[in-house]
Design brief:
Blueprint: E1 4-7, H1 11-21, E2 27-31, E3 44-47, H2 49-57, H3 62-66, E4 68-69, E5 72-77, E6 80-86, E7 111-114, H4 115-127, E8 132-136, E9 140-146, E10 149-154, E11 160-164, E12 167-169, H5 176-180, E13 187-200, E14 208-213, E15 223-228, E16 233-240, H6 249-263, E17 272-285, E18 290-291, E19 294-296, E20 302-303, H7 311-332, H8 336-364, H9 377-390, H10 393-396, E21 429-431, E22 437-439, E23 449-454, H11 463-466, H12 472-480, E24 486-491, E25 501-505, E26 511-516, H13 520-530, E27 592-595, H14 596-601, H15 608-613
Parallel strand pairs: 1-2, 1-12, 2-8, 5-14, 12-19, 23-24
Antiparallel strand pairs: 3-7, 4-7, 5-6, 9-10, 10-11, 11-27, 13-16, 13-17, 14-15, 15-16, 17-20, 18-19, 21-22, 23-25, 25-26
Helix pairs in contact: 1-4, 1-7, 7-8
């Protein structure tokens, strides 16, 4: 079978290639650049605990070597400390919990790393993979689809084309894939602007991130953020007016000196300026994320980043959601429900996040009306911002999929647990089939369903005894009969779960259902729902999901610049698909590359003109973000 084609070799595209390889799926990564990443310390990314763990599972070693987990979070308004959080360095795993739902819990520590170091770590992991082919200098020129596969035409002296089973556009904010498909990208331009500096210095709160609102010194912006990196390096962001003068080097140095003096009792400490920059944040959401065998992921599908949200975080969550579905399709075939569920789950989650950010901005950035002056409003704003930055609440928490099309029907044997259906499961300690004790999160990413038995006391039993005692033999027999590959795990306890409860977990860590004991028929039905039913479906490929909730991107985000405001059908969504080219599907599992002259000799049509006809004519004002 043909490999999956991935367009774009940024962190999202590289992570997708690694995630597919971990599940035995070959891929071709088309990199328009030269395969190198320019070191830019001021261009860093913040990963939440779930996405950082996913990237580590993919073999990226630079997270530990060149990233830093914050030990705390400080919120300051004027001169007053209004919020201080101690962060959990254990990746947020559930070791102990309280029966009191109001009991405070420490947020999991985010990880901060320069983006070039992250990309280098992903490329190093790819170099150890035999299932991934990276092609540099390969700019996408056209896309062609038929019922058996997809062809990507690339520019270059040889005029090559590549045949794949599916294609995923991970090619950034100015996505060529999205434009070739004619998919609109509505939203808001220039939501926020920031001046950025990376510098080496000593600040009074080592290892802690800081959000300083309304600093008291003259000429200060409304908001300054300081985030630590290894080796005494800090990234400092100054919020700029939406429309203002260019930030000159002299003006930026003056900001640095004033800020450091304001934080260090009026004296500017010694510092080494390493890198600077200015970036603009946009909020946009693609109308469609799937057209037949072509998908969008990362910045090609969504842009966000204001008030603590993280675009790359969501791009990695796209990868986590899509990779196991493509892998199941590649190995076993799949119903259209399974592939459509990528858009049905991820797009509403991003729409909710964008809406929360857009609705928060008026109050957080001024202009919030009378509500901004009500008692407690400032504390509420500080808490909302802090939660967004540390990965909690509507701006930062990992999304749930309570209305997923893959959710099974309710049954009598279902029991509630501490995790809502469709939400990410807790990272409890589990015993694996080989008897080792690991974290539940360590078993994700292999394309398997996880069946978790809550069995108090197994920690003190010898494995030889409990594997053949109680409900275990019946559970293992039920798991062997499931319609999808699954693994049995055992845990001493799970928040809110009764003894002998059985939890079914998706390959990406979301809870499918929890049952009171071993119920083979209900477990089978739930597993069948997760895989989308049989590999054949009555749904036509590429049709829209039945319900597309949250189609807008928040307040004021409904209009697409230069392309009208109605939610009508996308224009030119074929990009030349279905013209009969590339009928040689399934001729091998490796990448296929031919010159255009050879393709024409075999009756292949050059789809360049057709593909260009599908490019959206609306003005695309989106700029590359951090």
């Amino acid at each position: 079978m043909d490999p999956v084609i991935i367009v774009g070799a940024g962190p999202v595209g590289l992570a997708l290639a690694l995630a597919l390889a971990a599940q035995g799926v070959p891929s071709v990564v088309l990199d328009e650049g030269d395969g190198k990443d320019e070191p830019r310390p001021a261009r860093s990314v913040v990963l939440r605990a779930d996405t950082a763990a996913m990237v580590e599972r993919l073999g990226c070693t630079t997270l530990r070597d060149e990233g830093l987990r914050w030990v705390g979070w400080r919120g300051v308004r004027r001169r007053q400390l209004v919020r201080h959080l101690t962060l959990d360095l254990g990746l947020g795993g559930t070791e102990e919990w309280s029966e009191d739902p109001e009991a405070p819990s420490a947020p999991a520590a985010p990880l901060h790393i320069p983006q070039h170091a992250l990309a280098r770590g992903l490329r190093d992991a790819l170099s150890r993979q035999d299932l991934v082919t990276v092609v540099t200098g390969a700019g996408l020129d056209g896309i062609e689809q038929d019922r058996n596969g997809v062809i990507a035409h690339t520019r270059g002296p040889g005029g090559t084309w590549w045949r794949g089973s599916h294609l995923v556009g991970c090619d950034g904010a100015r996505s060529t894939v999205r434009k070739l498909l004619g998919i609109r990208f509505p939203g808001r331009t220039a939501v926020e602007r920031h001046a950025v500096a990376a510098l080496r210095t000593e600040l009074p709160w080592p290892g802690e991130a800081l959000l300083h609102r309304q600093p008291p010194w003259r000429g200060a912006p409304d908001e300054i953020t300081a985030r630590p990196l290894p080796d005494g390096v800090w990234r400092i962001d100054w919020l700029l007016p939406p429309r203002g003068d260019l930030v000159t080097p002299d003006a930026l140095v003056a900001r640095i000196r004033e800020t450091l003096a304001g934080w260090c009792e009026g004296v500017t400490p010694p510092y080494e300026l390493i890198d600077t920059g200015v970036y603009t944040l946009h909020h946009r959401l693609a109308r469609r994320w799937r057209v037949d065998r072509v998908f969008l992921a990362g910045d090609a599908a969504h842009l966000l980043g204001a008030v603590g949200t993280q675009s790359l975080d969501e791009g990695f969550r796209d990868v986590h959601n899509l990779a196991w579905k493509l892998a199941h399709t590649w190995h076993h075939g799949a119903s259209e429900r399974l592939l459509d569920s990528y858009q049905s789950e991820r797009r509403p989650a991003l729409a909710d996040r964008l809406r929360a950010a857009d609705q928060s901005l008026p109050a957080l950035r001024g202009g919030g009306g009378l509500r901004a002056y009500l008692p407690g409003a400032g504390r509420g704003h500080d808490a909302l911002l802090a939660d967004g930055h540390v990965g909690r609440g509507p701006l930062g928490a990992p999304p749930a999929h309570p209305h997923s099309p893959l959710a099974p029907e309710p049954t009598e044997g279902r029991v509630p647990v501490g995790t809502p259906t469709g939400a990410p499961v807790e990272d409890v300690r589990v015993t694996a089939p080989d008897g080792t004790t690991v974290r539940l999160r360590d078993r994700l990413g292999h394309g398997r369903l996880l069946v978790l038995l809550v069995a108090p006391g197994t920690g003190v039993w010898d494995r030889r005894h409990w594997r053949g005692a109680g409900v275990m033999p019946r559970l293992e027999e039920a798991v062997r009969a499931l319609p999808a590959k699954a693994e049995v795990l055992v845990t001493e306890a799970y928040p809110g779960a009764p003894a002998h409860a059985v939890l079914l977990v998706r390959p990406d860590g979301h809870l499918v259902a929890a049952f009171s004991g071993v119920r083979p028929e209900e477990l089978y039905a739930a597993a069948d729902a997760v895989r989308g039913g049989s590999p054949h479906s009555e749904t036509e490929p590429g049709t829209e999901p039945a319900a597309e909730t949250g189609a807008g991107t928040g307040a004021g985000a409904g209009a697409d610049a230069g392309s009208g405001t109605g939610p009508g059908a996308d224009s030119g969504t074929g990009a030349g698909r279905g013209s009969g080219a590339g009928a040689r599907s399934g001729a091998g599992s490796g990448p296929r590359k031919k010159s255009k002259s050879e393709a024409k000799a075999e009756g292949q049509s050059d789809v360049k003109a057709d593909a260009k006809a599908g490019v959206s004519t609306g003005s695309d004002r989106t700029a590359d973000t951090r």
